[in-house]
Design brief:
This protein is 33% helix and 24% strand. By secondary structure, the protein is α/β, with parallel strands linked by helices.
Length: 408
């Protein structure tokens, strides 16, 4: 399958990159061998592999040839290509696609190289770094557009600017977020902004087990710890491996936060509102409907810059003597058979398993999250009350157990 076609497959993917060093980071893994790394990338679920062939990255065409022998993945040749001869060289070495960097090439040159690549049977990834270059890539009718978080002139990383460009890219193009992806949450941020894939290199090459690291970046569900009110609890959630930290700003909630507390750049912050959102500086907003007599309604949406990127659903409920308890579907209920409990709503589970990203919430905890994931296969799981020693105060052992069970 061609490079562009694998990126066009449903879902979110990754291009895994091989490089021994970089001008910005210096040596990364100078002794690395393509023959060892390429199978790990393929086993880790990469949709394609990127190979640096430039001396500045300790790469060469021989690496491309070795990769072609070692993997069936489509290969993206990365270098500073400016002539048809360059494209022919990488094609002959086994490349399926070539990088074209708009910073270094004018539109006439890029258009000519894109035509030449097409004639050679190569796809192209046209790389942009700012709004002007994104517009150029669009006008050049590039099918695959790479948006680099790194300024190749200064080597400075600006992930916020990258995500804004990804969000502005035309939805009829294939968009790849490049550089500075080190965590599952950072990859998810690119996904929610509209990227079809991330290109990941340094974090994989530095990992003791590149295959496991790639699987980690792509794995779902994400884990959200919500109802955080204290910095020490945020820190405990991050240390436990949470991807998202939630802060509730709903009146009447015993977990109402004073502010969005500090989270590292490897984690996403989520501000939770009922009825109308406010600007709190969080990465995402979780917005619930109002329901008479309750702090919030049952369902919500997850927003990025005001645009819905996922839906949020609570577990179905039944009344019990000690308060509401979640229903668990049996195989018959999920398949459309009779519910296993009086009053159970199996349709709720089928709706929850519908298309699109789902965040599953509502009294999830260490004891039930694994069953919930099996039943619904959500994009993320969200817990608050079941991880507490008191309202708004997290039990760190429960937080660790919840993350561990969600990852199991």
């Amino acid at each position: 399958m061609r490079f562009a076609d694998v990126l066009a497959q449903p879902g979110f993917g990754a291009i895994a990159e091989f490089k021994r060093r970089s001008p910005s980071a210096g040596d990364i893994r100078p002794e690395a061998r393509i023959e060892d790394v390429a199978p790990a990338y393929e086993g880790g679920g990469a949709r394609a592999m990127s190979v640096l062939v430039d001396d500045a990255f300790a790469g060469s065409l021989d690496d491309l040839r070795a990769a072609r022998t070692a993997t069936r993945l489509p290969l993206l040749a990365k270098g500073f290509f400016s002539t048809e001869e360059h494209l022919r060289d990488v094609r002959d070495a086994g490349a399926d696609a070539a990088l074209l960097i708009l910073r270094d090439l004018d539109d006439v040159k890029v258009a000519g190289l894109m035509r030449a690549a097409d004639e050679l049977g190569l796809d192209t990834l046209v790389e942009a770094h700012d709004v002007d270059e994104l517009e150029r890539a669009t006008q050049l009718d590039a099918r695959v557009i790479g948006v680099n978080a790194r300024d190749l002139g200064t080597f400075r990383i600006d992930r916020a600017a990258q995500l804004e460009l990804v969000a502005k890219a035309p939805r009829d193009r294939l968009v790849v977020a490049e550089s500075a992806i080190h965590s599952r949450a950072q990859a998810a941020a690119a996904e929610l902004a509209g990227a079809d894939a991330v290109l990941v290199g340094t974090s994989l090459m530095r990992a003791d087990e590149p295959q496991a690291k790639l699987q980690e970046l792509l794995s779902r569900p994400l884990v959200k710890v919500c109802g955080l009110t204290r910095q020490e609890d945020v820190d405990a959630a991050v240390e436990a491996g949470a991807d998202l930290c939630g802060f509730i700003f709903a009146e009447g909630s015993p977990r109402k936060a004073a502010e969005v507390l500090a989270v590292p750049e490897t984690v996403l912050s989520v501000a939770v509102f009922v009825g109308e959102p406010e600007e709190r500086g969080a990465d995402l907003v979780q917005l619930y409907t109002r329901e008479e007599g309750k702090v919030r309604g049952r369902d919500a949406v997850l927003l990025r810059d005001g645009e819905q990127v996922a839906r949020v659903a609570d577990l179905p409920w039944r009344d019990a003597e000690d308060g509401p308890e979640p229903y668990w579907p049996d195989d018959a209920g999920l398949a459309g058979g009779a519910p296993s409990h009086e009053g159970e709503d199996p349709d709720h589970w089928r709706r929850a398993r519908g298309d699109g990203r789902l965040v599953l919430a509502g009294r999830l905890g260490p004891g039930n999250v694994r069953a919930a994931i099996r039943a619904v296969e959500p994009w993320a799981v969200d817990a608050a009350s079941q991880l507490e020693s008191a309202p708004g105060v997290k039990d760190h052992a429960k937080v660790r157990a919840f993350v561990e069970e969600a990852r199991a």
